[in-house]
Amino acid sequence: MSRRICVELYDQIVKLRADWHADDDAAGTIKVVITGSASDGPELNYHVRSKERLAALKQRAKDPDDPLELVIVRDMWLTGFDSPSLHAIYGDKPMRGAGLMQAIARVNRTFRDKPGGLVVDYIGITESLRAALAEYTERDRARQEVGAPIDEALAVLEEHHEVCCELLFGCPWREALESGSDKARIEAIMAALEHLLAGADMELPERFLRHVRAATQSFAIAVASPEAARYRGDLAFFQAVAVELRRARAEERAKSDEVELETAIRQVVSDAVTASGVIDIYAASGFGLRTPADVHYDVLRGSEHAGPRRWKLPGVLTPSASCACGPNHPGSLQPSGSTHRRR
User: Same structural domain for residues 291 and 163?
Assistant: First the structure.
């Protein structure tokens, strides 16, 4: 594939998907990455970028949440570039040996529900791939993940799809899904969530998440097959339920952690607040032993000691009882008729 073919392919794609195009490097779903010179003309030079712009675009390609989905490259990004979320490579250039393995390495990293990469061969590189694999270790060849038959992935997808349906038996999710209503879809997701959480004693949530993950991985391998398309709608629903299920379980764990934390704090406070004896505040302040009747505000007001004062507690203590507090105590009771302000 020449650089001009890359640009022409871009032009044809954006004719079909005009919303994928954006002049700004920070926006858009599709980009072309090529080298160039001033003699190439405006059509090619439009896609030629400086080193700084290429670095920014490379960061977009590495971000799994970025809207950039498709990059058409020509002799670039084969080395020094790693983005585990990249899923598929569409090859239309003769490659062999280390160059071929580097190209495949762009998409063969595992990531979240992605078990491996998809290589779509337009030019016939199968034999070159076998020869390149022969140069690597016995372990790499024994895994045989490269070139795994689509039929095997479809069989695994069908198996796990069936299990997911069985785990939701008794929940009318498919009827709501087939109605095509957004409201019905949301209600179906919530109904499936309640159904699975109600079966926690039978490990329904764990089993459902495990089989949805396996089905998603198989679908990622067989996505180019027309047979896989019939599972797309169900799998999208299962994934939506899985997201809500993980969120619900995370909230349950958070509540459990809060209870454990509160219990731990209470224990710490209980251990820290211990009785260490009784202190006679009158003796400590230099007045000696006094009774409530001996303590009068008028007497102590002129004292050189900022000693205890007598405060009446209406409705709580008897007329002869009182509470003695320091004048600067933050929780001291105020004399009758005054305004309470914390210092």
Answer: no
pTM for the predicted model, two decimal places: 0.47
What are phi and psi for residue 300, nearest 5 degrees? -80, -15
Residue type at position 216: T
Q: Do residue 200 and residue 250 come from a single domain?
A: yes
Q: Domain containing 99 — which CATH number? A: 3.40.50.300
Range of the domain at 79: 3-149
In whole angstroms, give the CA distance from residue 183 to residue 338.
61
Looking at the structure of the chain, the number of domains it has is 3
Buried b (16+ CB within 10 A) or exposed e, 2-21: ebeebbebbeebbeeeeebb
Distance (Å, rounded) from C-alpha 183 to C-alpha 250? 25
Q: Of 149, 180, 196, which residue constitutes the final position of a domain?
A: 149
- Same-domain check for residues 61 and 194: no
How many residues comprise the chain?
343
pLDDT per residue, tens digit, the chain (343 aa), is: 688 999 999 999 999 999 999 999 999 999 999 988 777 888 898 999 988 999 899 999 989 899 999 999 988 887 667 788 888 888 888 887 777 877 777 887 778 777 777 888 888 887 787 777 776 655 555 555 555 567 788 888 999 999 999 999 888 888 877 877 888 889 899 999 999 998 888 888 999 999 998 888 888 878 777 888 889 889 999 999 999 999 888 876 666 555 565 665 565 555 544 444 555 555 555 555 555 555 444 444 444 444 444 444 444 444 444 444 444 444 433 333 433 333 3
